[in-house]
Amino acid sequence: MDMSEILESSSSDKQDMEGQESDEKKAPRVPFQALAMLEPDRVPSNVTTPPPVITKTLEYIVKEAKGKLNELGQRISAIENAQLQNKMFLKEQFTKEYMKAKGLKDDLGQPL
Questions:
Q1: pLDDT tens per residue, range 47-92
Q2: How far is CA 17 from the centre of its chain?
Q3: CA 73 – CA 57 distance, rounded (Å)
Q4: How many CB atoms lie within 10 A of CB 52?
Q5: Is the CB of residue 105 less than 8 Å from the CB of residue 99?
């Protein structure tokens, strides 16, 4: 594709786009005066906002947080124990494979 082809294709694309723009200009528009005017910073005077309600006491929130921390601690302990068991299993497997490769015997004196 040479430069003239690129220029020709881009000019035809431009004409297509200009044709769409002229079609959009012909579309009916809503008069600006018909649009509702909104003032988001104003609060209607007939609406009263209720005072904030505290639904939970501070003691309840602390108790709830302690319970969640305790649960997280138990989960962490379970994960750590599972990782330790996995590490011990892998170490045992490695030791058995190493001893087998060296032609050594296991702890009971039997060849692996």
A1: 677 777 768 889 999 999 999 999 999 999 999 999 999 999 999 9
A2: 38
A3: 24
A4: 6
A5: yes
Report d(CA 15, CA 17) in Å as an integer.
5
Question: Amino acid identity, residue 80?
Answer: E
Check residue 105 and report its DSSP letter.
B
Q: In this predicted structure, what is the pLDDT of residue 67?
A: 96
Q: What is the DSSP string of 31-60?
A: -GGGSPP--TT---TTPPPPPP---S-HHH
The strand pairing partners of 105, in sequence order, are: 111
Place of tokens 């087998």: 100
Phi, psi of 111 (to 5 degrees): -65, 145
Alpha-carbon distance of 89 to 67, in angstroms, equals 33
- pTM of the predicted protein model: 0.40
Q: What is the pLDDT of residue 55?
A: 80
The partner residues of 100 in beta bridges, in order of sequence, read: none
